[in-house]
Design brief:
InterPro entries: Apaf_helical, Disease_R_plants, LRR_dom_sf, LRR_R13L4/SHOC2-like, NB-ARC, P-loop_NTPase, RX-like_CC, Rx_N. By secondary structure, the protein is an alpha/beta fold. 41% of the residues lie in helices and 14% in strands.
Length: 949
């Protein structure tokens, strides 16, 4: 570290001249060196202190819920941890400035003198931090705030937590709405004549009514009389095995006279033996309510004997891994209530004093908004409905409550149950998952969080561990997402055709609770344009959803993530605001109205993630070379045509996306623009995704050095490059997504001598194939295959029929023949089929038993196809059919003589070739919105108009 400062001193001296260099070399360095040696040691110590502080905060954050004194003290500990992190990041910032500053003489001189002053502040900053840590230690001892000790308020909180399950057990079941099927199924399982002991699970997020449903069935007289004995125990997060076992014994044995002596002092193993002895020849029903981990069951399993008497054990849990303990799929996964059921339940509670529980018209709109906010969560509906039942029926009062719902959740004691039930899941998270989940709360209400986006953001923020062993951090992040879904904290809202999760959603009330926690802990703030115009001091992350220009205060030195969803702000505001965030790691300006990269961006040395996608940015400056920590550069759908050679110096880049979509329907050869990258890309060895790059002879050979690549899109290819390209691709063992597009329709591609790339799951090949023959390069692992303008002479369908994993098949201008045939048993997993722009195709044969899982069929530009393929009637799974630019005769027969073929398809959409905007609106813009958010629709509507250009 002293060496790094010496570099700074020399840079300053060089700017002043040789005489100053000599003076600094002899005098100043001698004076500063001992200080810097101490400083280096202090930095090592303080980095270690940060690790301990972060681990400490993660360990105790959930231990003392409700203890205000402890919360206040812990808040100051977080502040110190943030100060330490700031010092470390500031050091990295200053050393980078010294190494990279090549600006003008006077500007360089000014910055170096200013930075030298900043260097001088470090020792005093470290001393202040060390003093604060010492004072916090003394304060903890003074107020008896020892870690692990439960305060009175914490004990009360725990008692309340246990009472929640008890209260659900005591619910008046006559008021249950919805879940009729689930109750019926559970009753059937409990009554079925099966000799083996059966383990049944009810699984779902907190507040869905798992305990209520279990209690309804448990107390049913028909169920009770079917068992010799029964017991109900609440396990909870803080269970003690001995207490659980004693409670089970008390309920099973009941009478004092029959109770074994010394139960209160028995060891754990002896208690198990007592239960085993009692259950040995009995048919029993035991409910384990609110189970949080597998360990609880793994021990109790020994106590609940397998006695072949038809016994049943019922578990309620929020966690999918716990529910997976059940046998033979005896799992009921609860979902949120449908709107009709939610409304009925709310009215029963809110308007119970009125006849037939009718909502007055004057407040119906606000009542509907409140119900919608609950998003089908019974606990919230019942609790809020009960609160509103004794409020007035004035519109103003209901409007005020709705607008203050977030505050109500955090501060209204009557809503504490809702807050606490939802917060239990958050407090159960390990430290590494907790931070990741808090980050999700920054996104807007009902925002569909994409897997790829959130993974990159987590990695850029340093929230994902590097496990090594060939596992990428992106794969680790995906494991985090899956764990959050298994804990019922995130919901998978969309899956890719292959079944992989694409988007996730937070329940709105879970998001509200998590946002409150994130703000309280200074983790981050989501600014929605209403209420406060100031960002709380010390917030580390800021997501501006609306009303950006209403913000008038920032804690600039501490901000690490800045995500801007407000697309209405002027360029000047964006440029001004970024100048305050010099330690930023994440910058997301997707859809923002900017035409050039703000100058200050290249000064943000700590940046790991930059997203300018869907903006009007045209050029990336050469000064991007300064951003040596950059991991993600997202320039999708910008106007960048060339990247500076300096991009190849960013050796930490993991994802580089840069292209413009010219044709939203993806039916033209060059529908995606290719970007030129001059220079040598060999140093980008960490690159995992590169798209869409313009091919040249040097680049295709250099690609072989990027052995971590998993996704590659390369355009403007020529036949003379193909052998070298394939040689490079064979050096990428993890490559699973590949797009190759030829430079023009005349260039012929000869692939006959090439071997398949065995790990490809997606392959897009655009260009004319030599001799109209299909090469043998297609991997059996392919899930998505797109062939464009191949001019094949032989029906290619049979060649793909053995690809049992194929989910999407798209053929555009791929076949020059007259007939395509889909035979029985072919394509068992195909979900989507597109056939487009094959001018000679006049007949499509579809046999019964083919494509039995097809959901979507797209036919476009098949002018010579006059009749609707008869075999479509066999595909009963078809949900949507899109017809674009088809012949008049085809459309007439579709409505007339051939209508019986398609009458089972619920959605049939027809478009004329002149109405490409309608096609975009119906098919492609919704897809963009799902993938990139609603801003994509606005962007595409402006930049990809009716011409599709």
């Amino acid at each position: 570290m002293a060496d790094s400062l010496f570099v700074v001193l020399k840079k300053i001296a060089l700017s002043l001249g040789e005489e100053a260099l000599g003076k600094i070399g002899t005098e100043m360095v001698v004076q500063v060196a001992p200080i810097m040696t101490d400083f280096e040691q202090s930095m090592k110590q303080i980095e270690g202190e940060l690790l301990v502080l972060q681990a400490f905060i993660g360990q105790v954050s959930a231990q003392r819920v409700g203890d205000k004194a402890f919360d206040a003290w812990l808040d100051q500990v977080r502040d110190v941890a943030h100060e330490v992190e700031d010092i470390i990041d500031e050091y990295a910032y200053l050393t980078s400035q010294a190494a990279l500053d090549t600006s003008s003489f006077f500007k360089r001189k000014f910055h170096q003198i200013k930075n030298f002053v900043a260097w001088q502040r470090f020792p005093s900053q470290i001393s202040q931090v060390e003093a604060r840590i010492q004072r916090l230690t003394e304060m903890r001892n003074r107020y008896d705030l020892s870690v692990g000790k439960q305060g009175k308020s914490s004990n009360l909180q725990l008692t309340n937590q246990l009472c929640m399950s008890d209260s659900a057990y005591l619910t008046d079941h006559s008021e249950i709405v919805g879940n009729v099927d689930e109750i019926g199924r559970l009753t059937e399982w409990l009554l079925e004549e099966r000799q083996d002991r059966t383990l049944i699970a009810i699984f779902g997020m907190g507040g869905l009514g798992k305990t209520t449903i279990a209690s309804t069935v448990y107390k049913d007289q028909k169920i009770k009389t079917s068992f010799d004995c029964h017991a109900w125990v609440v396990v909870s997060q803080t269970y003690q095995v001995e207490k659980l076992l004693r409670e089970i014994i008390n309920q099973l044995i009941g009478e004092r006279a029959s109770m074994p002596r010394g139960v209160m002092t028995m060891s754990r193993m002896r208690l198990v033996e007592v239960i085993q002895s009692h259950l040995q020849d009995r048919k029993y029903l035991i409910v384990l309510d609110d189970v949080w981990d597998k360990d609880a069951w793994l021990f109790l399993n020994y106590a609940f004997v397998r006695n072949s008497c038809g016994s049943k054990v019922l578990i309620t849990t929020r966690r999918k891994d716990v529910s997976s303990l059940s046998e033979d799929s005896y799992v009921i996964e609860l979902k949120t209530l449908k709107h009709a059921d939610s409304w009925e339940l709310f009215c029963k509670k809110a308007f119970r004093a009125s006849k037939d529980n009718i909502c007055p018209e004057t407040i119906r709109s606000w009542a509907n908004k409140i119900v919608a906010k609950c998003q089908g969560l019974p606990l919230a509906i019942v609790t809020i409905g009960s609160i509103m039942s004794y409020r007035g029926l004035e519109e103003q009062e209901w409007a005020f409550f709705y607008n203050q719902l977030s505050w109500q959740l955090a501060n209204n004691p009557e809503l504490s149950w809702v807050f606490n039930v939802l917060n239990l899941s958050l407090n159960d998270l390990p430290c590494y998952l907790r931070s990741c989940f808090l980050y999700c709360s920054l996104f807007p209400e009902d925002y569909k969080i994409t897997r790829k986006l959130i993974s990159k953001l987590w990695i850029a923020e340093g929230l994902v561990e590097d496990r090594g062993d060939g596992t990428t951090m992106e794969e680790v992040a995906e494991c985090y997402l899956m764990e959050l879904t298994q804990r019922s904290l995130l919901q998978v809202t969309e899956r890719k055709a292959c079944g992989r999760a694409r988007t996730f959603l937070m329940h709105d009330l879970v998001r509200e609770v998590t946002s409150i926690i994130a703000k309280k802990e200074k983790f981050g703030i989501a600014h929605g344009g209403a209420g406060t115009t100031q960002v709380a001091h010390g917030a580390r992350r800021l997501c501006v959803q609306r009303g950006a220009q209403t913000l008038n205060s920032f804690s600039s030195s501490r901000l690490r993530s800045f995500i801007l969803f407000d697309t209405e702000v002027p360029c000047s505001w964006v440029h001004d605001i970024l100048s305050r965030f010099r330690l930023l790691r994440v910058l997301c300006l997707r859809f923002v109205n900017i035409e050039q990269v703000p100058d200050v961006v290249t000064e943000l040395y700590n940046l790991r993630y930059i997203d300018f996608s869907y903006t009007k940015v045209k050029m990336i400056p050469a000064s991007f070379r300064k951003l040596v920590n950059l991991q993600v550069l997202d320039l999708r759908c910008t106007y960048v045509e060339d990247l500076p050679m300096e991009i190849t110096m960013l050796t930490n880049l993991r994802h580089l996306h840069v292209f413009l979509v010219h044709d939203l329907q993806l039916r033209s050869l060059n529908c995606l623009s290719a970007t030129k990258i001059p220079g040598n890309i060999c140093h980008l060895k960490n690159l995992q995704a590169l798209q869409v790059v313009s091919a040249n002879k040097d680049l295709v050979s250099q690609l072989g050095n990027l052995q971590l690549l998993r996704s590659l899109a390369i355009a403007e290819m020529r036949q003379s490059y193909i052998a070298e390209l394939w040689n490079s691709l064979t050096k990428m063992p993890n490559l699973n997504r590949l797009l190759i597009s030829m430079c023009n329709v005349k260039e012929t591609l000869d692939l006959k001598t090439l071997k398949p790339l065995p790990n490809l799951t997606l392959f897009v090949l655009s260009g004319k194939l030599e001799g109209g023959l299909l090469p043998s390069i297609f991997s059996v692992k392919l899930k998505v295959l797109k062939l464009d303008w191949s001019s094949l002479k032989k029906d290619p369908v049979s060649s793909f029929s053995q690809m049992l994993n194929l989910v999407d098949l798209l053929l555009t201008g791929a076949y020059a023949g007259e007939q395509l045939t889909f035979c029985t048993t072919w394509f068992p997993n195909l979900k989507s089929l597109q056939l487009a722009d094959m001018e000679h195709l006049s007949w499509i044969e579809i046999e019964d038993g083919t494509m039995m899982n097809l959901h979507v069929l797209l036919l476009a530009g098949l002018r010579n196809l006059k009749a609707v393929p008869e075999g479509i009637k066999y595909i009963r799974t078809l949900h949507e059919m899109f017809l674009t630019d088809m012949s008049n005769e085809f459309i007439i027969r579709l409505h007339g003589s051939d209508n019986h073929i398609v009458q089972h398809i619920p959605n049939i959409n027809k478009f004329d070739s002149s109405d490409s905007q309608a096609v975009n609106n119906a098919i492609y813009l919704p897809w963009l919105a799902k993938k990139f958010g609603p801003g994509a629709i606005k962007y595409a509507s402006i930049n990809c108009g009716p011409s599709g250009s």
